[in-house]
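Weekly structure sync, notes
Attendees: PL (lead), two postdocs, one rotation student
Agenda item 3: pending single-chain targets
PL asked that the sequence for the first pending target be pasted directly into the notes so everyone works from the same version. It is reproduced below exactly as submitted, 140 residues in total.
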Amino acid sequence: MIIDRIDFRLANDLAELEPLVRALDCFGEAVALPPKTAHRLTLAIDEFVNNAVDYGYPDHRQGEITVSIRHRVEHLEIVIADDGDAFDPLTAPAPDLSGSIEERRIGGLGVHLVRTLATSFAYRREDGRNVVTLALALDA
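Predicted structure, written out during the meeting:
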């Protein structure tokens, strides 16, 4: 059996990240992802799931996050959706990288990093859900 896609559905709880990362590792092995791509995949998923949990549900209501990954010929197609408050990461200002780490404003670096690593990045609000779609190249 060849695995070329995987779908996850999880609660908006950071405890869900550990089993998700283990499943991502298994997926990466199953489709023989290059180590660099596997690392970028885990980084991107971790960043967007963390942000959804931390900022998308300020009232601590229960919610659902979905992650879908498709292995294509030259890239991974990733769709992350949540039913949290609307947030378009494309409108987030790029972080100020000048100055020392102690002087920098907290936040924004993870989304900026994922945007620079992705070959494409899109956001839409659909049926009350934030939907982020990105592609990661299959680097050697």
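Discussion points:
- The mean pLDDT is 88.
- The longest helix spans residues 35-55.
Action: rotation student to compare against the earlier draft before next sync.
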